[in-house]
């Protein structure tokens, strides 16, 4: 074994604790579907925010971010805009409030408040369920691949197989570990639903905070700024960039140049502009129908939904990036001590587990492993909780068994949880890298999600038929276009290919969405007016707004477009400062740290006055 008995004991205690939480909360979660999927809407916003932050502190994403920070240095703070990370800012400013006002159980059920129960409404409802299931399966496969690759470093198969009655080929060892840990996560989320997820996440985030601070402090005390400067290329510690990346690792770690080439990020300005363009559209569409949306819908009020979304960045970014920077600094300086070979090839995604193995002291290693496994469990569990919500509430209860008892619905949820985990595991067996599935999810699949879901908030003339055909065209493009373009343009880096395909997906889905909406009748005026009164969005709602104000002269239309746009700009600056500040501290760039801190304080004060003080339900 590669880890000490003390570290193994810490991990086992943690695993027993979260399973115990699931059993303890089983009875409360089984009361009804709202209790199971939303915790009965009784959980405070800061616990849901901490749970959401814990869910985003996943192993796969952290392995990817450590790799980015190692290769690209401070310039890596922009690459997570692929998600896009600043969607939490747009949710915080206004979209969480709009979404929570619907008071529904799932994102698919929300569609009924916008498009009703006619043919278009039913079609749009079904396509959201399909999209939710595809995205959930993708994210589960992404987590499955990450946890397997992570655990393999610490538990070499040669040592483990001595205690097992079977053996495996080396390429299947990560899959075996992935199956073991996904099974544990599935058990506790099946038992306790949203309640067990949130309480386990609070435990998990506490562990991760302690471990992250320890690693960052170890890096600061063991590596001087001069030593780090000698180990990295010029410009590595500068977040700003020109037309091209201009990072040359020749003479330091030559293999990193090959990694930059394979990633396809050399023309960095074009890459960032494409990410920003895509990120704004994806964020304006609102959260995808996954665990993020479920956490917003689980808050006690629209105001708390906004506070929860804002708290995610405050809780997550400083702690996560303090740890990421700590591991990066140690890995760069002591690169020759890392074992990055997996399956006979160099794999930079193994930097995080190799660095833990090399640099974390006994006890801290156990906490780190428990915390990162906990982070995986949190993401996986929240995603597993989202999928059955759609299958049970939006398919089984609506179309198959409308009179099902609470007991039958909860049992159906158990069955659906197992089914989605099994299917995602089978998908994960064929995934080569974390980055490949991540790029397909954030650039490919969400590319098909954008147009219909942007227009549903801001344009009154979008109807259920237009929404359905726009979403369907987008999903089909996400599945078919990347392999076609890869065949036609083999020179493009395969991992970044979905980002280049994004504009074509956008145009095709926009044509399908807008043309179909204009070619079919508008939604029922009463339905549109009811939705507009309930959500009160700004945007192109002129005819509906005038109709509402005729019936209700004292109705005040949402006047906050300009204020919201300003707050988003300030919020993105605040969030980026929360990412950059801990990295500057760990690499001991004190002047840059003070400048970043000043920007953070000023932007936070602006948000306090212009956003927080004006939040209402």
Give an overview in words.
The protein is mainly α and 617 residues long. The chain has 25 helices and two strands. Helices cover 73% and strands 1% of the residues. The protein starts with a helix and ends in a 7-residue tail after the last helix. The chain has a two-stranded antiparallel ribbon. Helix 8 packs parallel to helix 16 (351-359) and helix 8 (119-154) packs antiparallel against helix 19. The mean pLDDT is 81. The radius of gyration is 24 Å and the shape is globular.
Topology:
Layout lengths: L4 H20 L1 H4 L3 H6 L6 H12 L2 H14 L14 H14 L6 H9 L3 H36 L2 H4 L12 H50 L2 H7 L23 H9 L4 H17 L6 H7 L4 H32 L7 E2 L2 E2 L4 H9 L4 H37 L5 H23 L5 H25 L5 H25 L8 H23 L5 H11 L6 H10 L9 H26 L3 H21 L7
Antiparallel strand pairs: 1-2
